[in-house]
Amino acid sequence: MSTHPDLVVSARGLSVVLGGRPILRRVDLDVRRGEFVALMGANGSGKSTLVRALTGLRPVAAGEVRLFDTPLDRFHERQRLGFVPQRPGAGGGVPASVWEVVSSGRLTRRRWLRPFGSADRTAIRAALDVVGLADRVGDSVSTLSGGQQQRVLIARALAGEPELLFLDEPTAGVDLPNQVALADALGILKSRGATIVLVAHELGPLAPLIDRAVVMRDGRVAYDGPALDDHAVHGPLFGDSHTHHHHATDTGAPHAPRVAAPLDTAEEGS
Amino acid sequence: MFSVFSYSFMQYALVAALFTGLAAPTVGTYLVQKRLSLMGDGIGHVAVTGVALGLLTGASPTWTAVAVAILGSVAIELIRERGSANGDVALALLFYGGIAGGVMITGIAGQSAQTLNTYLFGGLLSMQPSDVVITAILATVVLLLCIGLGPQLFAVAQDAEFARVAGLNVRAYNLLVAVMAAVTVTVAMRTVGLLLVSALMVVPVAAAQQVTRSFRTTLAAAMGIGVFAALGGLIASAYLSKAATIAPGPTIVLLALACFVLAWPVGSMLRRRERMRQPFEALPPLGHEETGEHPHEHGEDCGHLAIPHGDHVDYVHDGHRHAPHGEHYDEH
User: Of A212, B134, B188, B256, which cross-links B197 as Cys (Cβ 3.0–4.6 Å)?
Assistant: First the structure.
Protein backbone atom coordinates (compact mmCIF):
# COMPACT_ATOMS: atom_id res chain seq x y z
CA MET A 1 0.00 0.00 0.00
CA SER A 2 1.74 3.13 -1.18
CA THR A 3 0.84 6.34 0.60
CA HIS A 4 1.00 9.57 -1.29
CA PRO A 5 -0.12 13.00 -0.08
CA ASP A 6 -1.33 13.88 -3.58
CA LEU A 7 -3.75 10.93 -3.73
CA VAL A 8 -7.12 12.31 -2.65
CA VAL A 9 -8.98 9.04 -3.23
CA SER A 10 -7.35 5.66 -3.20
CA ALA A 11 -9.12 2.30 -3.36
CA ARG A 12 -7.18 -0.96 -3.36
CA GLY A 13 -8.83 -4.31 -4.04
CA LEU A 14 -12.19 -2.82 -3.07
CA SER A 15 -15.02 -5.35 -2.92
CA VAL A 16 -18.62 -4.69 -1.96
CA VAL A 17 -21.14 -7.45 -1.26
CA LEU A 18 -24.84 -6.59 -1.02
CA GLY A 19 -27.36 -9.19 0.07
CA GLY A 20 -24.80 -11.96 -0.41
CA ARG A 21 -24.06 -10.98 -4.00
CA PRO A 22 -20.68 -9.54 -4.96
CA ILE A 23 -21.37 -6.16 -6.57
CA LEU A 24 -17.84 -4.70 -6.78
CA ARG A 25 -14.89 -7.05 -7.20
CA ARG A 26 -11.27 -5.99 -6.51
CA VAL A 27 -11.59 -2.44 -7.79
CA ASP A 28 -8.47 -0.27 -7.80
CA LEU A 29 -8.95 3.47 -8.22
CA ASP A 30 -6.67 6.46 -7.59
CA VAL A 31 -7.77 10.06 -7.92
CA ARG A 32 -5.16 12.81 -7.66
CA ARG A 33 -5.68 16.30 -6.32
CA GLY A 34 -7.47 18.55 -8.83
CA GLU A 35 -8.56 15.75 -11.14
CA PHE A 36 -12.07 15.62 -12.66
CA VAL A 37 -12.94 11.93 -13.04
CA ALA A 38 -16.08 10.56 -14.68
CA LEU A 39 -17.23 7.14 -13.51
CA MET A 40 -19.18 5.66 -16.39
CA GLY A 41 -20.80 2.39 -17.38
CA ALA A 42 -24.12 0.67 -17.94
CA ASN A 43 -26.85 0.36 -15.31
CA GLY A 44 -25.87 -2.28 -12.77
CA SER A 45 -22.17 -1.94 -13.64
CA GLY A 46 -21.44 -0.80 -10.07
CA LYS A 47 -20.54 2.84 -10.70
CA SER A 48 -22.98 4.20 -8.10
CA THR A 49 -22.06 1.48 -5.63
CA LEU A 50 -18.40 2.47 -6.04
CA VAL A 51 -19.14 6.09 -5.10
CA ARG A 52 -21.28 4.91 -2.20
CA ALA A 53 -18.47 2.68 -0.93
CA LEU A 54 -15.96 5.53 -1.27
CA THR A 55 -18.18 7.82 0.84
CA GLY A 56 -18.86 5.15 3.47
CA LEU A 57 -22.52 4.61 2.57
CA ARG A 58 -21.91 0.97 1.60
CA PRO A 59 -19.90 -1.45 3.73
CA VAL A 60 -16.55 -2.51 2.30
CA ALA A 61 -16.32 -6.31 2.24
CA ALA A 62 -12.62 -6.47 1.35
CA GLY A 63 -9.85 -4.11 0.35
CA GLU A 64 -9.12 -0.62 1.56
CA VAL A 65 -10.41 2.89 0.87
CA ARG A 66 -8.32 5.93 1.79
CA LEU A 67 -9.49 9.54 1.56
CA PHE A 68 -6.82 12.23 1.90
CA ASP A 69 -4.35 9.49 2.84
CA THR A 70 -6.50 8.42 5.83
CA PRO A 71 -8.33 5.07 6.02
CA LEU A 72 -12.07 5.69 5.50
CA ASP A 73 -13.11 4.39 8.94
CA ARG A 74 -10.73 6.84 10.61
CA PHE A 75 -11.58 9.76 8.31
CA HIS A 76 -13.30 12.43 10.37
CA GLU A 77 -12.50 15.64 8.48
CA ARG A 78 -15.91 15.53 6.90
CA GLN A 79 -15.79 19.22 5.93
CA ARG A 80 -13.25 18.29 3.22
CA LEU A 81 -15.82 16.02 1.59
CA GLY A 82 -18.91 16.95 -0.41
CA PHE A 83 -21.58 14.54 -1.62
CA VAL A 84 -24.40 15.10 -4.09
CA PRO A 85 -26.77 12.12 -4.02
CA GLN A 86 -29.10 11.19 -6.84
CA ARG A 87 -32.02 13.56 -6.67
CA PRO A 88 -34.59 12.24 -4.20
CA GLY A 89 -38.17 12.02 -5.43
CA ALA A 90 -40.27 14.72 -3.84
CA GLY A 91 -38.15 15.51 -0.78
CA GLY A 92 -39.59 15.53 2.72
CA GLY A 93 -43.23 15.83 3.69
CA VAL A 94 -42.78 19.37 5.01
CA PRO A 95 -41.85 22.34 2.79
CA ALA A 96 -38.20 23.34 3.00
CA SER A 97 -36.82 26.52 1.49
CA VAL A 98 -33.80 26.61 -0.82
CA TRP A 99 -31.88 28.49 1.88
CA GLU A 100 -32.65 25.84 4.53
CA VAL A 101 -31.59 22.93 2.34
CA VAL A 102 -28.37 24.62 1.21
CA SER A 103 -27.51 25.74 4.75
CA SER A 104 -27.67 22.12 5.95
CA GLY A 105 -24.49 21.67 3.90
CA ARG A 106 -22.75 23.84 6.48
CA LEU A 107 -23.26 21.23 9.21
CA THR A 108 -19.84 19.69 8.60
CA ARG A 109 -18.28 22.97 9.74
CA ARG A 110 -20.73 23.84 12.48
CA ARG A 111 -20.62 22.95 16.16
CA TRP A 112 -23.67 21.80 18.08
CA LEU A 113 -26.05 24.50 19.27
CA ARG A 114 -24.09 27.28 17.58
CA PRO A 115 -25.99 29.81 15.50
CA PHE A 116 -24.84 30.73 12.01
CA GLY A 117 -21.88 33.08 11.77
CA SER A 118 -21.18 35.49 8.96
CA ALA A 119 -18.69 33.02 7.43
CA ASP A 120 -21.52 30.49 7.16
CA ARG A 121 -23.82 32.97 5.46
CA THR A 122 -21.10 34.05 3.04
CA ALA A 123 -20.40 30.43 2.07
CA ILE A 124 -24.10 29.68 1.56
CA ARG A 125 -24.56 32.78 -0.63
CA ALA A 126 -21.45 31.93 -2.63
CA ALA A 127 -22.70 28.36 -3.19
CA LEU A 128 -26.08 29.67 -4.40
CA ASP A 129 -24.31 32.11 -6.74
CA VAL A 130 -22.24 29.31 -8.27
CA VAL A 131 -25.37 27.31 -9.19
CA GLY A 132 -27.27 30.45 -10.21
CA LEU A 133 -30.14 30.17 -7.72
CA ALA A 134 -29.38 33.19 -5.53
CA ASP A 135 -32.77 34.72 -6.43
CA ARG A 136 -34.74 31.66 -5.25
CA VAL A 137 -33.57 31.43 -1.60
CA GLY A 138 -37.03 31.86 -0.09
CA ASP A 139 -38.82 29.46 -2.41
CA SER A 140 -39.88 25.99 -1.36
CA VAL A 141 -37.62 23.39 -2.99
CA SER A 142 -40.61 21.36 -4.13
CA THR A 143 -41.77 24.21 -6.42
CA LEU A 144 -38.48 24.07 -8.40
CA SER A 145 -37.98 22.01 -11.52
CA GLY A 146 -36.02 18.75 -11.35
CA GLY A 147 -32.90 20.37 -12.77
CA GLN A 148 -33.11 23.26 -10.33
CA GLN A 149 -33.53 20.81 -7.42
CA GLN A 150 -30.37 19.06 -8.56
CA ARG A 151 -28.58 22.42 -8.52
CA VAL A 152 -29.84 23.02 -4.97
CA LEU A 153 -28.25 19.72 -3.90
CA ILE A 154 -24.98 20.77 -5.53
CA ALA A 155 -25.14 24.11 -3.72
CA ARG A 156 -25.71 22.23 -0.46
CA ALA A 157 -22.50 20.27 -1.00
CA LEU A 158 -20.61 23.44 -2.02
CA ALA A 159 -21.77 25.30 1.11
CA GLY A 160 -19.42 23.08 3.13
CA GLU A 161 -16.51 24.29 0.93
CA PRO A 162 -15.28 20.76 0.19
CA GLU A 163 -11.96 19.90 -1.43
CA LEU A 164 -13.33 16.64 -2.82
CA LEU A 165 -16.78 16.38 -4.36
CA PHE A 166 -18.65 13.17 -5.23
CA LEU A 167 -21.69 13.49 -7.49
CA ASP A 168 -24.01 10.58 -8.23
CA GLU A 169 -25.67 10.98 -11.66
CA PRO A 170 -26.24 14.74 -11.42
CA THR A 171 -27.43 14.94 -15.02
CA ALA A 172 -29.94 12.06 -14.99
CA GLY A 173 -33.38 13.32 -15.97
CA VAL A 174 -32.20 16.95 -16.14
CA ASP A 175 -33.09 19.11 -19.16
CA LEU A 176 -30.36 20.63 -21.33
CA PRO A 177 -30.41 24.24 -20.00
CA ASN A 178 -30.03 22.88 -16.48
CA GLN A 179 -27.26 20.51 -17.58
CA VAL A 180 -25.43 23.54 -18.99
CA ALA A 181 -25.96 25.47 -15.73
CA LEU A 182 -24.61 22.46 -13.87
CA ALA A 183 -21.57 22.19 -16.13
CA ASP A 184 -20.87 25.90 -15.55
CA ALA A 185 -21.02 25.39 -11.78
CA LEU A 186 -18.66 22.40 -11.90
CA GLY A 187 -16.34 24.34 -14.24
CA ILE A 188 -16.03 27.10 -11.61
CA LEU A 189 -15.21 24.51 -8.95
CA LYS A 190 -12.65 22.81 -11.13
CA SER A 191 -10.95 26.13 -11.80
CA ARG A 192 -10.67 26.62 -8.03
CA GLY A 193 -8.74 23.37 -7.74
CA ALA A 194 -11.44 21.05 -6.35
CA THR A 195 -11.19 17.33 -6.99
CA ILE A 196 -14.38 15.98 -8.56
CA VAL A 197 -15.59 12.40 -8.99
CA LEU A 198 -18.81 12.21 -10.94
CA VAL A 199 -21.00 9.24 -11.81
CA ALA A 200 -22.64 9.67 -15.17
CA HIS A 201 -24.38 7.58 -17.75
CA GLU A 202 -23.93 10.25 -20.38
CA LEU A 203 -21.72 13.32 -20.15
CA GLY A 204 -23.45 15.81 -22.44
CA PRO A 205 -22.29 19.37 -21.69
CA LEU A 206 -19.92 18.05 -18.97
CA ALA A 207 -17.67 16.34 -21.54
CA PRO A 208 -15.14 19.21 -21.98
CA LEU A 209 -14.46 19.28 -18.20
CA ILE A 210 -13.52 15.63 -17.85
CA ASP A 211 -9.81 14.82 -17.35
CA ARG A 212 -10.18 11.09 -17.05
CA ALA A 213 -12.84 8.46 -17.57
CA VAL A 214 -13.20 5.24 -15.58
CA VAL A 215 -15.64 2.81 -17.16
CA MET A 216 -17.16 0.11 -14.97
CA ARG A 217 -18.50 -3.16 -16.31
CA ASP A 218 -20.12 -5.82 -14.15
CA GLY A 219 -18.47 -4.65 -10.94
CA ARG A 220 -14.94 -4.24 -12.32
CA VAL A 221 -12.96 -1.44 -13.91
CA ALA A 222 -13.05 -2.03 -17.67
CA TYR A 223 -11.26 1.14 -18.76
CA ASP A 224 -9.24 3.82 -17.00
CA GLY A 225 -7.73 6.54 -19.12
CA PRO A 226 -8.33 9.71 -21.11
CA ALA A 227 -11.92 10.88 -21.51
CA LEU A 228 -14.06 8.91 -23.96
CA ASP A 229 -17.02 10.16 -25.90
CA ASP A 230 -20.45 8.87 -24.92
CA HIS A 231 -20.63 6.54 -27.89
CA ALA A 232 -17.43 4.65 -27.05
CA VAL A 233 -18.55 4.10 -23.45
CA HIS A 234 -21.71 2.39 -24.59
CA GLY A 235 -19.96 0.30 -27.20
CA PRO A 236 -19.98 -3.49 -27.09
CA LEU A 237 -16.69 -3.59 -25.12
CA PHE A 238 -18.51 -2.26 -22.07
CA GLY A 239 -21.52 -4.49 -22.37
CA ASP A 240 -24.15 -1.95 -23.26
CA SER A 241 -25.45 -2.27 -26.80
CA HIS A 242 -27.93 0.56 -26.63
CA THR A 243 -27.39 4.19 -25.75
CA HIS A 244 -30.61 5.39 -24.26
CA HIS A 245 -30.76 5.75 -20.54
CA HIS A 246 -32.81 3.46 -18.34
CA HIS A 247 -32.92 5.33 -15.13
CA ALA A 248 -32.28 3.00 -12.25
CA THR A 249 -35.37 2.57 -10.11
CA ASP A 250 -35.26 1.68 -6.45
CA THR A 251 -36.91 -1.68 -6.67
CA GLY A 252 -34.28 -3.31 -4.51
CA ALA A 253 -31.80 -5.97 -5.55
CA PRO A 254 -32.01 -6.26 -9.33
CA HIS A 255 -31.09 -9.92 -9.69
CA ALA A 256 -32.78 -11.37 -6.62
CA PRO A 257 -36.37 -12.41 -6.06
CA ARG A 258 -38.40 -10.01 -3.90
CA VAL A 259 -40.23 -12.09 -1.34
CA ALA A 260 -39.68 -10.96 2.20
CA ALA A 261 -40.92 -11.62 5.72
CA PRO A 262 -41.65 -8.57 7.88
CA LEU A 263 -38.26 -8.50 9.58
CA ASP A 264 -36.02 -9.23 6.58
CA THR A 265 -33.57 -6.53 5.62
CA ALA A 266 -33.86 -4.73 2.31
CA GLU A 267 -30.62 -4.65 0.34
CA GLU A 268 -30.11 -2.02 -2.28
CA GLY A 269 -28.12 -2.60 -5.40
CA SER A 270 -27.35 -0.35 -8.30
CA MET B 1 -67.13 32.93 32.85
CA PHE B 2 -64.83 32.51 35.86
CA SER B 3 -66.59 29.44 37.12
CA VAL B 4 -64.65 26.96 34.99
CA PHE B 5 -61.23 28.55 35.52
CA SER B 6 -61.63 28.68 39.27
CA TYR B 7 -61.39 24.90 39.58
CA SER B 8 -57.84 23.84 40.36
CA PHE B 9 -58.05 20.73 38.12
CA MET B 10 -58.96 23.03 35.23
CA GLN B 11 -55.91 25.20 35.91
CA TYR B 12 -53.69 22.10 35.93
CA ALA B 13 -55.28 20.93 32.72
CA LEU B 14 -54.71 24.28 31.01
CA VAL B 15 -51.00 24.25 31.90
CA ALA B 16 -50.70 20.67 30.65
CA ALA B 17 -52.55 21.56 27.44
CA LEU B 18 -50.25 24.52 26.81
CA PHE B 19 -47.12 22.34 27.00
CA THR B 20 -48.74 19.55 25.02
CA GLY B 21 -49.87 21.96 22.31
CA LEU B 22 -46.29 23.24 21.98
CA ALA B 23 -44.44 19.92 22.09
CA ALA B 24 -46.67 17.63 20.03
CA PRO B 25 -46.56 19.59 16.73
CA THR B 26 -42.81 20.18 17.17
CA VAL B 27 -42.00 16.48 17.14
CA GLY B 28 -44.80 16.01 14.62
CA THR B 29 -43.07 18.31 12.13
CA TYR B 30 -40.05 16.00 12.04
CA LEU B 31 -42.28 12.93 11.76
CA VAL B 32 -44.23 14.44 8.85
CA GLN B 33 -40.98 15.45 7.17
CA LYS B 34 -39.79 11.84 7.42
CA ARG B 35 -43.18 10.70 6.10
CA LEU B 36 -43.93 8.91 9.37
CA SER B 37 -47.22 10.66 10.13
CA LEU B 38 -48.73 7.51 11.59
CA MET B 39 -45.83 6.73 13.92
CA GLY B 40 -47.39 8.69 16.78
CA ASP B 41 -50.55 6.66 16.36
CA GLY B 42 -48.56 3.43 16.59
CA ILE B 43 -46.74 4.57 19.72
CA GLY B 44 -50.10 5.56 21.22
CA HIS B 45 -51.42 2.05 20.68
CA VAL B 46 -48.35 0.49 22.27
CA ALA B 47 -48.57 2.89 25.22
CA VAL B 48 -52.02 1.50 26.10
CA THR B 49 -50.24 -1.60 27.33
CA GLY B 50 -47.96 0.64 29.38
CA VAL B 51 -50.90 2.35 31.06
CA ALA B 52 -52.52 -1.01 31.79
CA LEU B 53 -49.30 -2.30 33.36
CA GLY B 54 -49.34 0.73 35.65
CA LEU B 55 -52.96 0.05 36.63
CA LEU B 56 -52.12 -3.61 37.28
CA THR B 57 -48.99 -3.06 39.36
CA GLY B 58 -50.09 0.07 41.15
CA ALA B 59 -47.16 2.03 39.69
CA SER B 60 -47.77 5.45 38.12
CA PRO B 61 -49.42 4.79 34.72
CA THR B 62 -47.56 7.83 33.33
CA TRP B 63 -44.15 6.29 33.98
CA THR B 64 -45.06 2.78 32.85
CA ALA B 65 -46.53 4.34 29.69
CA VAL B 66 -43.32 6.32 29.09
CA ALA B 67 -41.24 3.17 29.46
CA VAL B 68 -43.38 0.99 27.20
CA ALA B 69 -43.83 3.76 24.62
CA ILE B 70 -40.06 4.28 24.40
CA LEU B 71 -39.51 0.54 23.90
CA GLY B 72 -42.23 0.49 21.25
CA SER B 73 -40.88 3.54 19.41
CA VAL B 74 -37.35 2.14 19.33
CA ALA B 75 -38.74 -1.13 17.94
CA ILE B 76 -40.72 0.78 15.29
CA GLU B 77 -37.65 2.83 14.32
CA LEU B 78 -35.41 -0.24 14.07
CA ILE B 79 -37.99 -2.04 11.90
CA ARG B 80 -38.27 1.05 9.69
CA GLU B 81 -34.50 1.34 9.41
CA ARG B 82 -34.25 -2.20 8.09
CA GLY B 83 -36.33 -0.87 5.22
CA SER B 84 -38.13 -4.14 4.67
CA ALA B 85 -40.87 -4.19 2.05
CA ASN B 86 -43.14 -5.74 4.68
CA GLY B 87 -42.19 -3.33 7.45
CA ASP B 88 -45.71 -1.94 7.60
CA VAL B 89 -47.05 -5.40 8.42
CA ALA B 90 -44.57 -5.65 11.29
CA LEU B 91 -45.76 -2.25 12.54
CA ALA B 92 -49.39 -3.37 12.33
CA LEU B 93 -48.57 -6.43 14.46
CA LEU B 94 -47.01 -4.16 17.08
CA PHE B 95 -49.96 -1.72 17.12
CA TYR B 96 -52.66 -4.35 17.55
CA GLY B 97 -50.60 -6.28 20.08
CA GLY B 98 -50.26 -3.05 22.07
CA ILE B 99 -53.92 -2.15 22.23
CA ALA B 100 -55.21 -5.72 22.71
CA GLY B 101 -52.68 -6.32 25.48
CA GLY B 102 -53.62 -3.05 27.13
CA VAL B 103 -57.35 -3.75 27.21
CA MET B 104 -56.75 -7.29 28.45
CA ILE B 105 -54.36 -6.30 31.25
CA THR B 106 -56.77 -3.55 32.35
CA GLY B 107 -59.45 -6.21 32.72
CA ILE B 108 -57.10 -8.46 34.70
CA ALA B 109 -56.26 -5.49 36.96
CA GLY B 110 -59.95 -5.23 37.75
CA GLN B 111 -60.21 -1.66 36.43
CA SER B 112 -63.26 -0.46 34.56
CA ALA B 113 -63.30 0.57 30.92
CA GLN B 114 -64.07 4.05 32.22
CA THR B 115 -60.63 4.29 33.85
CA LEU B 116 -58.93 3.29 30.62
CA ASN B 117 -61.12 5.76 28.72
CA THR B 118 -59.54 8.76 30.46
CA TYR B 119 -56.20 7.63 29.05
CA LEU B 120 -57.58 6.83 25.61
CA PHE B 121 -59.42 10.12 25.03
CA GLY B 122 -58.11 12.44 27.74
CA GLY B 123 -59.79 13.44 30.95
CA LEU B 124 -59.84 16.63 32.96
CA LEU B 125 -60.62 15.18 36.34
CA SER B 126 -57.69 12.81 36.31
CA MET B 127 -55.18 15.70 36.45
CA GLN B 128 -53.02 15.84 39.55
CA PRO B 129 -50.44 18.56 40.32
CA SER B 130 -47.67 15.95 40.00
CA ASP B 131 -48.94 15.04 36.52
CA VAL B 132 -48.74 18.68 35.48
CA VAL B 133 -45.16 18.97 36.72
CA ILE B 134 -44.12 15.81 34.86
CA THR B 135 -45.88 17.03 31.72
CA ALA B 136 -44.16 20.42 31.86
CA ILE B 137 -40.69 18.97 32.45
CA LEU B 138 -40.90 16.32 29.73
CA ALA B 139 -42.41 18.74 27.21
CA THR B 140 -39.70 21.31 27.92
CA VAL B 141 -36.96 18.72 27.37
CA VAL B 142 -38.57 17.70 24.06
CA LEU B 143 -38.90 21.33 22.95
CA LEU B 144 -35.29 22.19 23.82
CA LEU B 145 -33.97 19.14 21.94
CA CYS B 146 -36.20 19.68 18.90
CA ILE B 147 -35.18 23.32 18.53
CA GLY B 148 -31.58 23.12 19.75
CA LEU B 149 -30.72 20.19 17.50
CA GLY B 150 -32.97 21.54 14.74
CA PRO B 151 -30.29 21.83 12.04
CA GLN B 152 -29.06 18.28 12.61
CA LEU B 153 -32.54 16.76 12.87
CA PHE B 154 -33.62 18.66 9.75
CA ALA B 155 -30.62 17.41 7.75
CA VAL B 156 -31.17 13.79 8.81
CA ALA B 157 -34.90 13.88 8.08
CA GLN B 158 -34.44 15.69 4.77
CA ASP B 159 -31.72 13.46 3.30
CA ALA B 160 -30.31 10.66 5.46
CA GLU B 161 -27.56 9.70 3.00
CA PHE B 162 -26.24 13.21 2.74
CA ALA B 163 -26.30 13.51 6.53
CA ARG B 164 -24.30 10.29 6.87
CA VAL B 165 -21.62 11.46 4.46
CA ALA B 166 -21.51 14.74 6.39
CA GLY B 167 -20.51 12.70 9.43
CA LEU B 168 -23.78 12.80 11.40
CA ASN B 169 -24.80 9.71 13.35
CA VAL B 170 -28.05 9.19 11.46
CA ARG B 171 -29.22 6.24 13.53
CA ALA B 172 -28.77 8.12 16.80
CA TYR B 173 -30.74 11.10 15.54
CA ASN B 174 -33.53 8.87 14.19
CA LEU B 175 -33.75 7.07 17.54
CA LEU B 176 -33.79 10.43 19.30
CA VAL B 177 -36.81 11.54 17.25
CA ALA B 178 -38.53 8.20 17.97
CA VAL B 179 -37.91 8.51 21.71
CA MET B 180 -39.07 12.14 21.71
CA ALA B 181 -42.23 11.03 19.90
CA ALA B 182 -42.80 8.38 22.60
CA VAL B 183 -42.31 10.91 25.39
CA THR B 184 -44.68 13.35 23.68
CA VAL B 185 -47.33 10.67 23.31
CA THR B 186 -47.30 10.02 27.04
CA VAL B 187 -47.15 13.74 27.83
CA ALA B 188 -50.26 14.30 25.71
CA MET B 189 -51.99 11.22 27.08
CA ARG B 190 -53.86 13.03 29.88
CA THR B 191 -54.95 15.91 27.68
CA VAL B 192 -55.75 14.49 24.25
CA GLY B 193 -55.69 10.80 25.00
CA LEU B 194 -53.59 8.00 23.49
CA LEU B 195 -55.86 7.29 20.55
CA LEU B 196 -55.94 10.93 19.39
CA VAL B 197 -52.46 12.13 20.33
CA SER B 198 -51.12 11.51 16.85
CA ALA B 199 -53.68 13.97 15.50
CA LEU B 200 -52.24 16.77 17.64
CA MET B 201 -48.78 15.89 16.28
CA VAL B 202 -49.79 15.80 12.62
CA VAL B 203 -52.91 17.92 11.98
CA PRO B 204 -51.34 21.28 13.01
CA VAL B 205 -48.40 20.52 10.68
CA ALA B 206 -50.76 19.65 7.85
CA ALA B 207 -52.65 22.90 8.40
CA ALA B 208 -49.48 25.01 8.69
CA GLN B 209 -47.83 23.69 5.55
CA GLN B 210 -50.80 24.75 3.44
CA VAL B 211 -49.54 28.31 3.62
CA THR B 212 -45.80 28.00 4.39
CA ARG B 213 -42.77 27.66 2.14
CA SER B 214 -40.01 26.85 4.62
CA PHE B 215 -39.41 24.34 7.38
CA ARG B 216 -38.88 26.92 10.07
CA THR B 217 -42.14 28.79 9.42
CA THR B 218 -44.00 25.45 9.21
CA LEU B 219 -42.61 24.50 12.63
CA ALA B 220 -43.53 27.84 14.20
CA ALA B 221 -47.02 27.94 12.65
CA ALA B 222 -47.69 24.32 13.70
CA MET B 223 -46.75 25.19 17.29
CA GLY B 224 -49.12 28.15 17.19
CA ILE B 225 -51.99 26.07 15.84
CA GLY B 226 -51.19 23.32 18.37
CA VAL B 227 -51.42 25.70 21.33
CA PHE B 228 -54.60 27.28 19.98
CA ALA B 229 -56.26 23.88 19.45
CA ALA B 230 -55.13 22.43 22.79
CA LEU B 231 -56.24 25.41 24.91
CA GLY B 232 -59.35 26.17 22.84
CA GLY B 233 -60.44 22.53 22.74
CA LEU B 234 -59.96 22.11 26.46
CA ILE B 235 -61.99 25.22 27.33
CA ALA B 236 -64.71 24.27 24.84
CA SER B 237 -64.98 20.77 26.30
CA ALA B 238 -65.23 22.22 29.82
CA TYR B 239 -68.17 24.42 28.79
CA LEU B 240 -69.81 21.71 26.71
CA SER B 241 -69.54 19.17 29.51
CA LYS B 242 -72.29 21.04 31.35
CA ALA B 243 -74.66 19.73 28.72
CA ALA B 244 -73.07 16.39 27.83
CA THR B 245 -70.09 14.22 28.73
CA ILE B 246 -67.37 15.37 26.38
CA ALA B 247 -63.70 14.40 26.76
CA PRO B 248 -61.18 17.13 25.87
CA GLY B 249 -59.37 14.95 23.26
CA PRO B 250 -62.07 15.02 20.58
CA THR B 251 -62.71 18.76 20.90
CA ILE B 252 -58.97 19.53 20.67
CA VAL B 253 -58.58 17.37 17.57
CA LEU B 254 -61.70 18.72 15.90
CA LEU B 255 -60.50 22.27 16.51
CA ALA B 256 -57.13 21.43 14.91
CA LEU B 257 -58.97 19.87 11.96
CA ALA B 258 -61.04 23.04 11.64
CA CYS B 259 -57.77 24.99 11.27
CA PHE B 260 -56.79 22.63 8.46
CA VAL B 261 -60.16 23.03 6.75
CA LEU B 262 -59.72 26.83 6.86
CA ALA B 263 -56.08 26.75 5.69
CA TRP B 264 -56.60 24.29 2.86
CA PRO B 265 -58.50 26.53 0.39
CA VAL B 266 -56.00 29.34 1.05
CA GLY B 267 -53.10 26.99 0.37
CA SER B 268 -54.72 25.59 -2.72
CA MET B 269 -55.25 29.13 -4.05
CA LEU B 270 -51.63 30.10 -3.28
CA ARG B 271 -50.32 27.00 -5.07
CA ARG B 272 -52.53 27.69 -8.08
CA ARG B 273 -51.29 31.29 -8.28
CA GLU B 274 -47.70 30.14 -8.00
CA ARG B 275 -48.18 27.65 -10.85
CA MET B 276 -49.82 30.32 -13.02
CA ARG B 277 -46.91 32.72 -12.45
CA GLN B 278 -44.17 30.20 -13.28
CA PRO B 279 -41.94 31.66 -16.02
CA PHE B 280 -42.28 30.05 -19.44
CA GLU B 281 -39.41 27.96 -20.83
CA ALA B 282 -36.79 30.32 -22.27
CA LEU B 283 -37.17 28.84 -25.76
CA PRO B 284 -37.60 31.06 -28.81
CA PRO B 285 -40.96 30.75 -30.63
CA LEU B 286 -41.02 28.39 -33.62
CA GLY B 287 -41.72 31.17 -36.09
CA HIS B 288 -42.88 34.75 -36.38
CA GLU B 289 -46.66 34.65 -36.03
CA GLU B 290 -48.54 37.90 -35.49
CA THR B 291 -51.79 38.10 -33.59
CA GLY B 292 -54.75 39.50 -35.53
CA GLU B 293 -56.36 42.83 -34.65
CA HIS B 294 -55.68 43.38 -30.97
CA PRO B 295 -58.46 45.16 -29.02
CA HIS B 296 -56.25 46.81 -26.42
CA GLU B 297 -52.68 47.44 -25.33
CA HIS B 298 -51.26 44.95 -22.78
CA GLY B 299 -49.69 46.62 -19.77
CA GLU B 300 -49.59 47.06 -16.03
CA ASP B 301 -53.33 46.87 -15.43
CA CYS B 302 -54.88 45.34 -18.52
CA GLY B 303 -56.00 42.40 -16.41
CA HIS B 304 -53.86 39.83 -18.23
CA LEU B 305 -51.08 38.02 -16.37
CA ALA B 306 -47.56 39.03 -17.44
CA ILE B 307 -45.27 35.98 -17.24
CA PRO B 308 -41.48 36.16 -17.80
CA HIS B 309 -40.40 34.38 -20.98
CA GLY B 310 -36.64 34.56 -21.52
CA ASP B 311 -35.71 38.26 -21.87
CA HIS B 312 -39.30 39.62 -22.15
CA VAL B 313 -42.80 38.98 -20.80
CA ASP B 314 -45.71 37.19 -22.43
CA TYR B 315 -49.27 38.27 -21.62
CA VAL B 316 -51.66 35.37 -21.08
CA HIS B 317 -54.78 36.25 -23.08
CA ASP B 318 -57.59 33.70 -23.59
CA GLY B 319 -55.16 30.79 -23.62
CA HIS B 320 -52.74 32.58 -25.98
CA ARG B 321 -49.34 34.04 -25.10
CA HIS B 322 -48.98 37.55 -26.53
CA ALA B 323 -45.50 39.09 -26.68
CA PRO B 324 -45.13 42.77 -27.64
CA HIS B 325 -43.20 43.16 -30.91
CA GLY B 326 -42.93 46.72 -32.26
CA GLU B 327 -46.44 47.95 -33.07
CA HIS B 328 -48.13 44.54 -32.81
CA TYR B 329 -48.18 41.37 -30.70
CA ASP B 330 -46.63 38.00 -31.58
CA GLU B 331 -48.04 34.61 -30.63
CA HIS B 332 -45.45 32.89 -28.40
Answer: B188
**B159 contacts in A (CB within 8 Å)?**
85, 88, 104
Pairwise CA distance, residues B181 & B30, whole Å: 10
- Given a contact cutoff of 8 angstroms between Cβ atoms, the answer to whether A161 and A77 are in contact is no
Chain B contact set for A266 (CB, 8 A): 82-85
For A235, residues 6+ apart whose C-beta sits below 8 A from its C-beta are none
DSSP structure class, residue A3: -
Going from N- to C-terminal start, the domains of chain A cover 7-238
Q: Please indicate whether, in this complex, the C-beta atoms of B218 and A112 are within 8 angstroms of each other.
A: no
- Choose among B32, B90, B213: nearest Cβ to A93: B32
A218 vs A24: CA distance, rounded Å: 8
CB-based contact B154 A100, cutoff 8 Å? yes
Query: Which of B165, B169, B211 is the mutation pick for testing A, counting most A CBs within 10 A?
Result: B165
Asked if the Cβ–Cβ distance from B165 to A56 is below 8 Å, we say: yes
DSSP state of A206: G
Cβ neighbours of A99 in B, within 8 Å: 214
Contacts B87 to A, Cβ<8 Å: 262
pLDDT tens digit at each of 332 positions of chain B: 557 777 888 888 899 999 999 999 999 999 999 888 888 889 999 999 999 999 999 888 888 999 999 999 999 888 888 876 666 787 788 889 999 999 999 989 888 778 888 888 887 666 788 888 888 999 999 999 999 999 999 999 988 889 999 999 999 999 999 999 999 998 888 888 888 889 999 999 999 999 998 999 999 999 999 999 999 999 998 888 777 778 888 899 999 999 999 999 998 888 888 778 777 877 778 888 888 778 788 887 788 888 888 778 888 888 888 888 888 888 88
CATH of A7-238, one of 3.40.1390.30, 3.40.50.300, 3.40.50.2000, 3.90.550.10: 3.40.50.300
Task: Break chain B into its structural domains and give their ranges.
Answer: 2-273, 290-332
Nearest by CB to residue A94, choosing from B33, B163, B165, is B33
| Contact in structure between B31 and B25 (CB atoms under 8 Å) | no
Say which DSSP state A114 is in: P
B163 and A139: CB-CB below 8 Å? no
Separation of alpha carbons B38 and B49, rounded Å: 18
The interface pTM score, or ipTM, of the predicted complex is 0.83
Q: What is the CATH number of domain B2-273?
A: 1.10.3470.10
